[in-house]
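lol ok so funny story. i was supposed to be doing the assay writeup but got distracted and ended up predicting the structure for this chain instead. priorities right. anyway since i did it might as well share w the group, maybe its usefull for someone
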Amino acid sequence: VEDIFDAMPDPDDPDAIEGDGIDVQALLTDLWEAASTLSKKPTDAEATLRFVGGAETLERMSLPFGFEQAVWRALVADTLELRDAMESETAEEQLSDEALAERAKSLSWSLRPLV
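and the output, tada:
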């Protein structure tokens, strides 16, 4: 549980991005599209870059209006976990293409109701 809290942005962080409405919707849509593509083509370079960039933005966002804190935290944690696995340089933390596709598919299903 502490790992999840540690992964969340600090609400008092001056660098936190305030995200509401259209900005949040656009980010979630972009993450969903990238995750959906990665679930089918885990080696797609463009989708990888879009996903990693979106995850970095999501990491800095504060809780958007209208989201339950637990739902938002779980979404951020799942997204960052996948991003970290994609960026890992150690062999034991790297995902196989099949594992990446499966995790991306799971995240895509989590994002789908939000877009």
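The two ends are 27 Å apart (CA to CA). The longest helix spans residues 22-40.
back to the writeup now i swear
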